[in-house]
Amino acid sequence: MSTWLLTGGAGYIGAHVLRALREAGHDAVVLDDLSTGLTERLPDDVELVRTGLLDPDLPAVLTGLTARRPLDGVVHLAAKKSVPESVAKPLYYYEHNVGGTVAVLRAASAAGIGRVLYSSSAAVYGETGSEPVAEEFPTLPTSPYGETKLAGEWAVRRHAEADGLRWAALRYFNVAGTASAQLADRGATNLLPLVMRAASGDGDPVGVFGDDWPTPDGTCLRDYVHVEDLAEAHVAAVEALLDDTVSSPGALNVGRNEPTSVLEVIEAVQRVQGRPVPYRIAPRRPGDPARVVADASRIAKVLGWRASRGVDRMVM
C-alpha cells in the first residue's frame, strides 16, 4: 500500500480522488486550507493537515509529516480555477497557482518525496479549432488561469528533470457529476451545479455566455468527463508512478473525445431530471474559447484508462 499527500483533498475533485485511491488500496493525507474545501467530504479516519500552499512553514510541515508517516508522492490538486476571476485578478492566480506549485515542489523535495502527480487543465491549449486536441497541440492559453496551469506543468517537468523525480500531469477537460450528494460540486462558477440549481428552483437562470460562437448551436463546446472517471485516471497515474521500471507518464489528456454544448448540457438536465431549466443569453466572457475537445488516445495507451460514463450519468 502506498500513501500520498493530496493538496486540495477536501475539494470537489480532491475528495473523489481520495475516495478512488482508498478503494484501490492506497492511503492518503489531505493538505487543505479549507478556503473552498469541506471537512464533511473527508472520512473520519483521514488525516487533515490544515495549511495553505504559501504558508512559509510548509517545508517544515511536510518534513515533520514524513518523519512519522512516509509519503510515496504528492497529488497536487490545490489551485484557484475560475477563468473570469483569473482575467480580473491575474496576479492573484499567478501567486497561488504558480507560486503554490513551486512551494509544493520545494517542500516535497525537502521532505524527500520523489513522485508528483500534477492537476493541470485543458485550458493550457486555448482556442483549439474543430479537431480533438492531442497533447502535442500548441499550448496557447487564452486566460491567466490557463497560463498558470501551463506554467505549473513547466515547473513540475523541469524540477523533475533536475531532481530525478517521477512525474505526471493530467490535463482535465470539463469535470462534472458526483459519486454522492456529499461529494457534489458546490462551486459557484461551474456549469453543471448552476444548471442543477436552476432546475431545482433554488438558483437564478443559467447564464449562457454567448450564442454566436462558431459552433452548431452557437454555444461553447466542451468535453465533459465524469469526476469518477477522472478520479480513476488519478489512480492509474499513481500506480504508473509507483512502477519505477517504466518512464514517467508526462502530460496526459483526461476527456471523452465528445463535444457537448452548453445548451446540450441544459437539455440533458431537462431530459434526465424532467424539469425545465431557465436560462438567459449573456455576453461572451473574456478568456473563453469556442471549442475544446480531447484526444484521449495517449492516456489509453500509456495508462490503460478510458472514460466510461456519459453526460446523462453526469446529470443524474
Automatic annotation (TrEMBL):
One of its GO terms (molecular function) is UDP-glucose 4-epimerase activity. Keywords: Carbohydrate metabolism, Isomerase, NAD. It catalyses: UDP-alpha-D-glucose = UDP-alpha-D-galactose. Its cofactor is NAD(+). SUPFAM superfamilies: NAD(P)-binding Rossmann-fold domains. It comes from the Bacteria. Pathway: Carbohydrate metabolism; galactose metabolism. Its EC number is 5.1.3.2. Residues 4-255 form the NAD-dependent epimerase/dehydratase domain. The keyword Transferase does not apply. Belongs to the NAD(P)-dependent epimerase/dehydratase family. NCBIfam families: galE. This is UDP-glucose 4-epimerase. The lineage of its organism: Bacteria, Bacillati, Actinomycetota, Actinomycetes, Pseudonocardiales. The gene is galE.
